[in-house]
Amino acid sequence: MESVIDQAFAAALYTEGDAGLDTGASLLAAAPEADAELVRRGEEFVRRAWERGWLPADVVRIVRRDLGEHAAGVAAGLIASEVRRYDELPPRWRSQLDELPPAPPAGRPDRFSYASALLALHRLLLALPVVEPVGPPPGAGREALHRPPAAGEPRMLTRIRALLAKAEATGYPEEAEALTTKAQELMARHSIDEALLAARTHGDRTPGACRIGVDAPYETAKAILLDAVASANRCRAVWNSELGFTTVVGFEADLEAVELLHTSLLVQGTAAMTRAEAGQRAGGRKRTKTFRQSFLMAYAQRLGSRLADGTARATAEADAEGGTDAGSGLLPVLAARDLAVSETAEQMFPRTTTTRVRGATDLDGWTHGTRAADRARMGGQAPGIRG
Asked: Which sign does the torsion angle of CA 275, 281, 283, 286 carry?
């Protein structure tokens, strides 16, 4: 005889529309004895997501986008429950799990609503496509889950994060610029040292990858900014507009730098856009959306130019200062790493496409965005450069 769970799933998961969800939720609301099995199957669907290349942050992000904050909390509860079965987890997972939203209590606000939210979540999890893996899934062997840290970690990254946090929080532009400049110097030296150490010791580190969410609104401009930061840090970025994330391919030290710098510049750009928009509104204009879109497009493109110029300058300076101590020299080492990153990206994404983006249509927004990019706290040293 078909169980209540099977009847509910047949109605809710394998038919389209809200009517099926309502039918399935009604069946489950009247059968509290099915609760444990409902959660167990939810954990199974989460486990299938890992097998398809998804990470905890990816799952919560797309659930939040498609189903809302409450469903994101329900997903977080299933994720936290599912990962308890593993003795060890892959790199990056612990920080993602620590940032999960709180899970709502089971059966709240009422049994029907809770069952409906779970079924909608299950339906979304079942429909998740296969994505390119950016690390081993949980349950992989110990060797796959662990790799030696890059030179200087985690103390160096802790210092960099602290400097950037202070730069974003201070109300004094001169102090923020000094703090960010120092953070960038540390990132540049950390990455170059890592590249030279790997070359001298013939280390077997290979490029990896991470995913960074690119959320609406103005996701095109945000993706362009992330691409500029990735390129300046000797990484490759591939944006999946449908799923709302960019995959960044590069060596671990450079991936860390991309995440840190992109976040900081996006915070600065958003704050500058808000200030500029307030001034525009005070002047009587109302075209907020076009102003913001044009602002962020200009901000992203101008920063891309600054980052590219800084990369060339910092690499030349580093080669002149320390090339003779690097064995074969810095430039060949960096060229070999660039080639490795390109080959890894092409293996992961053999069929990428180039998309035309909508141009900026608001001159004031473009002008203000360009100025904000010029004022962004890049400092006078190697903006965003990694070895």
From this structure: positive
